[in-house]
Design goal:
The complex is a heterodimer.
Chain A: E1 4-7, E2 10-13, E3 19-29, E4 32-37, E5 44-48, E6 52-53, E7 61-74, E8 84-89, E9 101-105
Parallel strand pairs in A: 2-9
Antiparallel strand pairs in A: 1-3, 3-7, 4-5, 4-8, 5-6, 8-9
Chain B: E1 3-7, E2 10-12, E3 18-25, E4 34-39, E5 45-51, E6 58-60, E7 68-73, E8 78-83, E9 92-99, E10 106-109, E11 113-117
Parallel strand pairs in B: 2-11
Antiparallel strand pairs in B: 1-3, 3-8, 4-5, 4-9, 5-6, 7-8, 9-10, 9-11
Classes of the chains: A mainly beta, B mainly beta.
């Protein structure tokens, strides 16, 4: 099973700042997605295929990376962006999630 | 509008069984693969199971040890999860999620249904 590790566990930033979230896989991953989850809500797909924005996702969200190292970047944090972010690999028959990074207000 | 609505959750004793349902609407259900994902209270997301179109391919998380069974009824636009031999570690919010055509990952999610395993 592919294990995903996310860092940092918590990121404390102010609105307008840049957020950089990391996702590392225990072995090479062919397909990686990022999801956002706010309290009391279901997760929402942000990025798939490592770098493709899902429908309706603002362009301040971008994804990059390949192989075992991936990054989600939020260029300028808006108040609604403070949430938990999960990466997920879906290239194998076991669709594992990372433990999440919480982005909270500094 | 795409909608996924889970039902069938509740309180069950350890060792008991429960069957979750997910009613789909607003899209051609039979054309999409589907999934169950769970989230224990205050914890992260855990993928549970996947079923392809026409139930050709079915996968489960290794941690389930054969206790859960996923199925679908395309005539009823419904997805199911039969859960047996439940333990307190199965206490979680259970989401059904659609696999997107172009993305291959989970592009639509239900709001989740709570399963509590406790005596």
């Amino acid at each position: 099973e592919i294990v995903l590790t996310q860092s940092p566990g918590t990121l404390s930033l102010s609105p307008g700042e840049r957020a950089t979230l990391s996702c590392r896989a225990s072995q090479s991953v062919s397909s990686l997605a990022w999801y956002q989850q706010k309290p009391g809500q279901a997760p929402r797909l942000l990025i798939y295929g490592a770098s493709r924005r899902a429908t309706g996702i603002p362009d301040r969200f971008s994804g990059s990376g390949s192989g075992t190292d991936f990054t989600l970047t939020i260029s300028r944090l808006e108040p609604e962006d403070f949430a938990v972010y999960y990466c997920q690999q879906y290239g194998s028959s076991r669709f594992t999630f990372g433990p999440g990074t919480k982005v909270d207000i500094k | 509008e795409v909608q996924l609505v889970e039902s069938g959750g509740g309180l069950v004793q350890p060792g008991g069984s429960l069957r979750l349902s997910c009613a789909a609407s607003g899209f051609s259900f039979s054309s999409y693969s589907m999934n169950w994902v769970r989230q224990a209270p205050g914890k992260g997301l855990e993928w549970v199971s996947y079923i392809s179109t026409r139930s050709v391919n079915i996968y489960y998380a290794d941690s389930l040890k054969g206790r859960f069974t996923i199925s679908r009824d395309d005539a009823k636009n419904s997805l199911y999860l039969q859960m047996n031999s439940l333990t307190d570690e199965d206490t979680a919010l259970y989401y059904c999620a659609r696999t997107g055509y172009s993305s291959g990952c989970f592009d639509r999610w239900g709001q989740g249904i709570l399963v509590t395993v406790s005596s």
